[in-house]
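Dear support,

I submitted the protein below through the web form. The confirmation email said the job was done, but the results page showed an empty box. After a refresh the structure appeared. I'm attaching both so you can tell me whether what I see now is the final result or a partial one.
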Amino acid sequence: MDLERYSRQILFSGIGRAGQERLSSGFAVIIGCGALGSMHAEMLSRAGVGRLRLIDRDFIEESNLHRQIMYEESDVADKLPKAVAAAKRIHRINSGIAVEAVVRDVNYSNIEDLIGDADIVMDGTDNFEVRYLINDAAVKLKKPWVYGAAVGAYGLQMTILPGETACLRCVFPEAPAPGTSPTCDTAGVILPIIANVASFQVTEALKILTGRKEKLHGSLIQFDIWENKLSKLNISGIRGKGECRTCEQGHFDFLSAKSGQLVTTMCGRNAVQITPGLPHQINFLELADQLRGGGEVSYNDYLLKFRSGDYELTVFSDARCMIKGTDDPNIARSLYARYIGA
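What the results page shows now:
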């Protein structure tokens, strides 16, 4: 361990030399290397966490650069996957830690392998389906994980210690229906809220990795930095009533294939169909209002069409979506998450 490199961090009484040594042997998995995840990777690598696994299915686009701090214009020009570009930058920041880039879609078939050897899992995702999947796998494998979300100027953060604290499904028993929640691509986002949420997430991770769990805030924190609001919801009493299907009843619904999205490549049509695993009813009027700022929108009683750039999304009333302009399931899933908000 390079004592000089981390000398100012070691001087901080909350970490000290013993805590720094624990960080150097720690292993964090970051799922999603977008706005939140790239900031997790930057901060954890600078803090000296010894091993990082970066997982993301997406490539870098120009519209990412205002908020995804690890990436540069050259990464867009080179069409680099986010996980690869983030790993390259970390090697430049701190060559003394081990970094693994995984360009993969996280789903029910691989998540347990991806987080099974981790000390902590960081949520850098942009959709509820994957967050509930992380929650199922982390609770099942007893892995601490740190939830965070940000859109507009609003953010949320909570930390889950399986068997000790409320899990995500204790607090949010059901995921919001597709098309009902704003996303960065429908409501926008500013970098300061990303920095706020990610800072809380990484601080919670440092507490866990250094063995200082007693310092965790133990709440659901809500931020609205544009309206100058911060609130903490005490969630300590939620767990323990036997009501949570995941952490108390032991049902891992999102780890089963039937609960995940069904993705079908339409042969010869340059299109992918995405069918949500759970039934939902789309309100076309509300969805159209969310999408108008991002492209051309039209709808009738039966379907909604949305065109943005090279892609056209046709959304049906049951939240099924046909995405034209790609035959790549990863791109299709990403577009669905961006605009439909699953």
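Response: this is the final, complete result; the empty box was a page-load delay. The longest strand covers residues 145-151.
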